[in-house]
Design goal:
Length: about 200
């Protein structure tokens, strides 16, 4: 009689084997590369942003996005397109979600050891400061935008390494503290909690 597995939770396809894990990583990478290609098509960009954010746990995603031709510029275009909708506050939930997805990709890059200094050298956080400076507190999606922006700052300061002093100096020099205080002043309880967790 064939030997039964010790546990019923064994994957019968052998997905836990090194070969299967390697194949799985290749599939994940291929998906990320496909979504990155979609970013170059304006009509598909909104969906591509959402799909890429679902792949944020992929080890390679932040590096692939940062190193893909024109992609950081495309993300910055998405962010800057929302500036004109901040004052007066006419940004709607759909537009806010799209911008949050672009900002969240920069958060993934801020969390990754191979890209966090690159986004600081490119002064990317400065592009999200206008979202942290908004005073609209009646519309939830403005709060989501502030929270996602705070997430980028949090990702940059969360890890202590040899680059930490340079990152902290950059944030102080670009006057992020008053913006964080603004988030406390006008934001929800969640925004205040996120800010205090940064300190």
């Amino acid at each position: 009689m064939e030997k039964l597995p010790e546990t019923l939770y064994v994957d019968p396809t052998g997905a836990s084997s090194p070969t299967a894990q390697k194949d799985s990583a290749s599939v994940e990478r291929a998906k990320v590369e496909y979504y990155i290609r979609l970013l170059h098509q304006p009509l598909l960009r909104e969906e591509a942003l959402a799909l890429l954010n679902k792949e944020r746990k992929s080890d390679d995603m932040a590096v692939l996005v940062w190193n893909s031709k024109n992609v950081p510029f495309i993300l910055l275009q998405e962010i800057m397109a929302a500036y004109k909708l901040l004052s007066p506050p006419v940004l709607d939930m759909k537009e806010a979600t799209r911008v949050c997805n672009a900002v969240a990709l920069f958060q993934a890059m801020a969390s990754h050891p191979d890209t966090r200094m690159e986004i600081v050298k490119a002064r990317v956080p400065v592009y999200i400061y206008p979202f942290m400076n908004t005073t609209e507190n009646r519309l939830k999606h403005f709060d989501y935008l502030r929270l996602t922006s705070l997430g980028v700052i949090g990702a940059l300061v969360k890890v202590e390494d040899k680059n930490s002093p340079q990152i902290i100096h950059f944030l102080l020099d670009t006057e992020v503290i008053p913006l964080c205080l603004r988030c406390i002043e006008v934001g929800s309880e969640l925004a205040k909690t996120v800010h205090f967790s940064l300190n």
